[in-house]
Write a structure and sequence with these properties.
Layout (H helix, E strand, L loop, with lengths): L26 E6 L5 E6 L2 E5 L4 E7 L3 H9 L1 E6 L5 H6 L8 H5 L3 E2 L8 E2 L4 E13 L3 E13 L8 H8 L14
Antiparallel strand pairs: 1-2, 1-5, 3-4, 4-9, 5-8, 6-7, 8-9
Bound molecules: flavin mononucleotide.
Length: 182
């Protein structure tokens, strides 16, 4: 006979959640400021939001360069790294913002519909125009963007549908590092 399932109530302090039950998929958001200076930052509270648009969104802090750039230029790209980029994604923040791209060895290329570049090493990217920002207390926001172009590496478009997510090999939050943004 199986044991009855027992639940442990967690604190409402999100920082303490481990495991964090709603796992975020780690993405790299690229943006540019008004002078064209490029920023890349990992974000993991990212999700599709609506078919119509289509609209995608992610959580951000208003102190972040990513937020400031998007407020200023109204554009960004969500790059979807695969598992092979996990270490580089986590190590990225060890470098100052203006050295992240060179230190991580990522290649940037001009996109089709926005000035922010996409990351060539990522098997998928979504170019977006700012749709709306929802502000929460204490300096957090959710940024919604209308997708103006989306591209997926050809190798992910296998004939066998069940293989397609394997080919994308998504980089979910590595819980052994920390669960803060899980
Ligand atoms: C794996 C991972 C996931 C992250 N997810 C988020 C997130 O969802 N939202 C957020 O505001 N910051 C997140 N961060 C922290 C930002 O990447 C970090 O604060 C960064 O310095 C912001 O860069 P920016 O100022 O260039 O935007 C995450 C960091 C890592 C390593």
């Amino acid at each position: 006979m199986s044991r009855p399932r027992r639940f442990v109530e967690l604190s409402l302090d999100k920082h303490s959640w481990s495991p964090s039950p709603l796992l975020g998929q780690v993405v790299l958001v690229t943006s540019v400021d008004a002078h064209g200076v490029i920023d890349v930052a990992p974000k993991s509270w990212a999700s599709m939001a609506a078919f119509a648009g289509p609209i995608v969104g992610f959580g951000c802090n208003v102190d972040h360069g990513t937020y400031r750039n998007i407020e200023s230029t109204g554009e960004f790209v969500i790059n979807v790294p695969d598992g092979s980029l996990a270490e580089r994604t986590w190590n990225m923040l060890a470098s100052p913002r203006d050295e992240r791209i060179t230190q991580s060895g990522l290649t940037l290329r001009r996109g089709r519909t926005v000035a922010a570049p996409f990351v060539v090493e990522c098997p998928a990217h979504l170019e977006c125009h700012l749709y709306q920002t929802i502000a929460f207390p204490k300096g957090e926001v959710f940024i919604f963007g209308t997708i103006s172009s989306i591209a997926v590496e050809e190798a992910c478009l296998t004939d066998e549908l069940s293989e397609r997510y394997h080919a994308l090999n998504p980089n979910t939050v590595q819980l052994d590092h920390h669960g803060l943004f899980g």
